[in-house]
Design goal:
mainly beta; Porin; three-stranded antiparallel sheet; globular
């Protein structure tokens, strides 16, 4: 569907000839992939103007089959059905509506079905979001999920759901949400018998969490950001088989150092920090762990965490940081190099006894046919670590979606 040469008067104003000195308004390619928005009238004291708009409708749904592999979770497949213009009330009234794609579409709701079977992790998810509940800035989110993972010291299975209400202040890139999560957490096949932290959770555990989150996101790209920042703070109270509070703070800042005249070839300096606190009654399956490509590189997955009787038991305090410099290696920006240092710790209590530091370097390879997330290959060498840590020089994340 294409709209062309669409003009409309926002407020009553005298007709005037276009001013050739006024430059076109740059069009956001996500909204106007092949179009342009031009002012029809020159600027004057009244802020209302006529606009001449030429645009194409973008595709709202996608079906993808892919595979991913990384050093934390092994090999995973993915089957994904995602619709960004869903309408749960528009059921098909004829076969023709199914064939031409009009069924279940048109209300701007978001619906997602995902199946991700893997060698170590399995995840299945169904989610629905109404971004403008009753035509207000309030959003409603509903989801159900099944998760199964074989950890080093136990097998974990989670079955549950989540409901959330959010509000977004678009002009400030600010959002807030309240959410409830309910899960049954099943722990089985413990590696050690007689360790209290493991013995108390074996079997089924009820989890009911009530969370409040505030976030501010000004990044130019969520996968390979070059400017802006991301800040998220959350407080959660959990009840059920165990009762404990959780506080999380995630902050990331991206600074553009230099670029080519055409805005390509960007050099970016970034810093990120994660700070977490959890109550003394936190069970082992909900404690903090560090180590792996997503937290502290240079360590195996969860390999930079407190250990008891040979079991990684995690901690109630987490502080992990990353300082990274990203620079282009090819003229087309498909390959970047990174130099970084990861540092921080996870402790059983709010203290710092085993501080970890691991500098390194890596590659980021972006292949258009493989989706927006780049391939990440990293090498890191811990220069400060605990004696019981599990070290790993090479970490990676490779994903493919079609």
């Amino acid at each position: 569907m294409q709209w062309s040469s669409v003009s409309g008067t926002v407020a009553a104003a005298p007709r005037m000839a276009p001013d050739p000195a006024i430059a076109p308004i740059p069009a956001d390619p996500r909204l106007f992939p092949n179009g342009q928005v031009d002012p029809f009238l020159p600027q004057y004291s009244d802020p209302a103007v006529d606009l001449f708009v030429d645009l194409n409708e973008a595709q709202t749904g996608r079906f993808m089959v892919g595979v991913a592999v990384n050093s934390d979770a092994g090999l995973m497949g993915q089957i994904l059905l995602d619709e960004q213009n869903f309408d749960w009330t528009r059921y098909p009234r004829s076969l023709d509506e199914i064939a031409n794609g009009r069924a279940w579409r048109g209300a701007g709701q978001r619906f997602r079905l995902e199946a991700a079977p893997g060698t170590v992790v399995q995840r299945y998810l169904a989610s629905f979001q109404e971004p403008y509940l009753w035509d207000t800035p309030v959003s409603l989110g509903l989801s159900g999920s099944f998760y199964d993972r074989r950890f080093l010291d136990w097998d974990e299975q989670r079955l549950g759901g989540r409901i959330s209400l959010g509000y977004q202040w678009t002009e400030n890139d600010l959002s807030a949400a309240i959410a409830y999560r309910g899960e049954n957490v099943n722990i089985r096949n413990p590696s050690v018998i007689g360790l209290p932290e493991l013995d108390e959770v074996v079997g089924d555990n009820a989890l009911h969490g009530f969370r409040f989150t505030v976030a501010n996101d000004t990044r130019d790209n969520p996968f390979l950001a070059t400017e802006g920042h991301y800040v998220e703070a959350s407080v959660e109270q959990v009840i059920g088989s165990f009762v404990y509070p959780r506080v999380l703070l995630d902050m990331r800042q991206y600074g553009l150092v230099t670029e080519r005249p055409d805005h390509s070839g960007r050099h970016v300096l970034s810093f990120g920090t994660q700070l977490g606190f959890s109550g003394n009654d936190t069970p082992i399956y909900d404690r903090f762990f560090a180590g792996g490509f997503s937290t502290l590189r240079g360590f195996d997955f969860r390999g930079a965490s407190p250990v008891k009787s040979g079991v990684q038991v995690g901690g109630d305090f987490m502080w992990v940081n990353t300082l990274e410099y990203l620079f282009p290696l090819t003229a087309d920006d498909m390959m970047h190099g990174v130099a970084f240092v990861d540092f921080g710790t996870v402790e059983e209590n709010v203290t710092i006894n085993d501080f970890r530091v691991a500098p390194g370097f890596g590659l980021r390879i972006t292949v258009p046919a493989m989706g927006p997330m780049p391939i990440a290959l990293d090498f890191a060498w811990p220069i400060s670590h605990a004696d019981f840590d599990d070290l790993q020089v090479f970490s990676f994340n490779i994903g493919l979606q079609r």
